[in-house]
Each structure stands twice: as C-alpha cells, then as structure tokens.
Amino acid sequence: MKVQITDTQKKVLFHMSLWSIWIFLSVSNARDEELINRTIMICSMILSTHLPLFLLNTEWLIPHIFPKKGAVVYFWSLMGVLAAFSFFHYHIFMWMGECQGTITDWNGHKVMMKGTLALVMVAAISTGYGLLNYVVRQEQKQQEKKQERLQSELSFLRSQISPHFIFNVLNSLVYLIRSKSELAEPVIIKLSELMRYMLYESENARIPLEKEIAYLQNYIELQKIRFEEDVEIRFHIDGTATDQLIEPMLLIPFVENAYKHGVSMLENPLIDIDLKIRDNGLDLSVKNKVAPATADLKDAGTGIGLRNVRRRLELLYPDSHVLHIASENGWFTVHLHIDT
Question: Each residue of 97-119: pLDDT tens digit?
Fold first, then answer.
C-alpha cells in the first residue's frame, strides 16, 4: 500500500531535519561542560529568531512580495527583515549570556558578527527553499489549469456524441415505423439499451471494454434490423475482453461513419468490421465501400464524429494509440490500435 505524504507533512519533516542538523553543527565543537548551555542557547536562538525568519521569508516574502513587487523590492525587504532580526538576536543573546553569568567571556562585537552570519545563512537557505517551492507551486498551478482546460474540452467533445448518435438512430426508427412497423418494437428495445449506456456509462472516465463491445454489438444489430438484406454487414471479434478499460463511446464513431457514408448511392454496399482484443490492447478495423462520386471528396478528417474521436484520442491516449484513415480504390478504411 502506497503511503501518500501531504505537503504539510513534508514541511514538518524538512524543518525537523534542518534544525536537527543546525543544532548538531552548532554544538559539535563544544566542550562537555559547555554542551548543555550551548544547546539551550542554540535552541533558544532557533525558536526566537532563526525559525521566525525562515518562516517569514518562505511563507510571506516569497509568496507575496516577490511575485507582486519583483525581485528588487523582495531583496530590500529581506535585507530590512534581516537587519531587524540581527538586532533582536544580539540583544537576546547578550541577555541570555548575562543570565548564565558567562557574558564576560564573550566579546559583544564577535557576538554580533556571529549572530548576523548565522541569520544570513538562515536567510540564504530559506530563500533557496522558498524559491524552489514557489517554482514548484507555479508549475503545479499551470498543470492544474491545463488539466482543467483538457477536461472542459473533453466534456464538450463527449456532449457532442450523444445528440449526434441519437439523431441518427431516431431517423432509423422513423424509417422502420413508416415501412415495417413490426420491426419498430425490437428497435426501440435496442435503442433503450443504447441510451441507458450513454446516460449511465458515458460520463465515466474509463469503463470495462466488454461494455463498450456490447454497446457496439447493439448498434450493429440495430442497423441490421434497419437495412435487412440491403447492406452486407460483417462483424468479427477475435479475443475476449477481460479486465481492460477504455474510454466510453470511443469505437462507435468509426462504425457509425461507415454506415453514414457506406450505404447510399452504392451497389452491393458492404461494411466490414474486425475487432482484435489482446491482453495489452486492441485493434479495430472498419472498411466500407464509397461511391465514386464521393470518394475523391471524402477526407480522412471530415464529419463531426471523426474529428471528435480523433481529438479525444489525442487527449486520452496521447502516446498509446495509432490511428490510420484512408480513402482509396473505392474503399474507406480505418485502422485503430489502442494500448489498454
């Protein structure tokens, strides 16, 4: 089980490590009789000046002054804060030395210099740490904005699928009611199954591949009822869907496009659909005859359906799909490979 560490926990661990090392380095050269007093002194300085300076720089100056006022104003603001803390540090240090009765062993000038040097080091470390965090946060915000834009675009693309498909199916239903009413009932049943899938499954990010295939089969069965013997429809599945996941309604646009452009104005129209399922992906091949009058005009990216699905593939499978669309020798062919 992977343990997720929050940003707050990361900060706490960082400070515990930093100030532990800081104390160790500060007391490492102290004599045994001075160790306790030196440790108390250093811990007091950390709590009274070092840690407040660090937090003031990383949590306020860098996040608020640096991006709004610029580097110059930030630098002089840090210098002013550093001077104030140096003054405060000197008086705290001298007061503690007097309380311990050891101030006579120290030189005030050296105390001031050492205290200021320590605070400069704290300021330098906090500046590096704060700027690094600032850059990371900015990159995270950019990624979040990019993700939000992609999600909005994807939601828009999905919203285009359902009305487009329902419109075509309803046209089929109207045709059947007018011509052979006894076929209208099974078509309505198939349509209800398709709409149930579209309403309850299409909003999910990924669904089991077997559900997408069942949806595809229902659509093809509906078209077989509509066209009967007028259109030869071949549909072959090689392999069995196990636990693969796929974006919903990703395969149907290619099949729908074949019916839309591969039936009218043709003698002996033929639609050939071949789906191969493997453990690590799938291959879909869709072929349909095209009329000579429209073959030259048909472009690989025409139609809402194909433009839509091409963009969805770019968003959802940027480096794990291959799509090839071609129109030649009286055939319009689509070959799609997806890594699942």
Answer: 555 554 444 455 566 677 778 88
- pLDDT given at position 298: 47
| 172 lies in some domain | no
Together in a domain, 56 and 116: yes
Structural domain contains residue 161: no
Angle between helices 7-27 and 32-45 (to 10 degrees): 140
Gap between the Cα atoms of 115 and 118, Å rounded: 5
What separation in angstroms does the CA of 111 have from each of 97, 114, 326?
Answer: 10, 5, 81
Whether 168 maps to a domain, the answer reads: no
Output the pTM of the full model: 0.55
- Do 107 and 186 lie in a common domain? no
Range of the domain at 51: 7-143
Position 297 scores a pLDDT of 46
Residues 14 and 101 occupy one common structural domain = yes
Instruction: Please tell me whether residues 201 and 325 are part of one structural domain.
Output: yes
How many structural domains comprise the chain? 2
Q: Are residues 208 and 279 in the same domain?
A: yes
pLDDT at 152 exceeding the cut of 60: no
CATH of the domain at 222: 3.30.565.10
What is the mean pLDDT of the segment spanning 115-139?
Answer: 88
Q: Quick one: pLDDT band at residue 336, thresholds 50, 70, 90?
A: very high
pLDDT digits (tens, 9 = 90+) for 25-63: 777 766 665 666 667 777 777 777 888 899 999 989 998
